[in-house]
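Sequence in, structure out.
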Amino acid sequence: MLFHDFQWALSKPRIGRFLIASNNNEEKALRLYQLNIQCSQTIFGLLSIFEVALRNQIDYHYKEYFNDREWLVNQCKETGIFNHPSFSRYQFESRTKIQATFKKLGEKYNHDRLVAELSFGFWSYMFAPIQFKVGGQHLHKIYVNRPKGTTPKELFNSLDEIRSLRNRIAHHEPLCFDKFHKISSSSIQLTYQKIINHTKWLGFNPDKFYMGLDQTPMMIELINNEI
């Protein structure tokens, strides 16, 4: 495809960032755009697996802690953690999300469907300071291989960075630029390493867990070659 046609199809503002970063080299701009898509694809693939593993570990933990297979719905009740007064300043957002999803599922509801429907943001925010405290202050124990001294706040902050990267990919935002709009893989590398770290800390071997799908290091190297 000619650069002009590609730019017309995807818009000048979107392609323009790649063109500027490539010093107006149209061939390089198209190559960089392709690398960005390929890098997004492989990271999103990892995240689709990691997200399921994380939410399941949280679910297993609270099923055991509350001795309740329906803990999400039941903890929205008057004495439940999602109804704790501490959440009033946030308009009981987690409770609202659970109840809205429960209502949406209707007759199709079961606990596993509810778990699957709740977003990565919902699950990562289980480590936010108030939710972690109200939830019993032991959720970090799902990270069986976490380094000694790793705090729940550190876990939450890194999960939030992973969530931010996930959203950037979902909204088709470029990953291959720094804040000065120069070609860079530093941001990808840092967050990618957090994904790998969390995977290991949950007790999984990343090489086996991601079934050979992880092409991120190679894509990072190819992006670096364009600098």
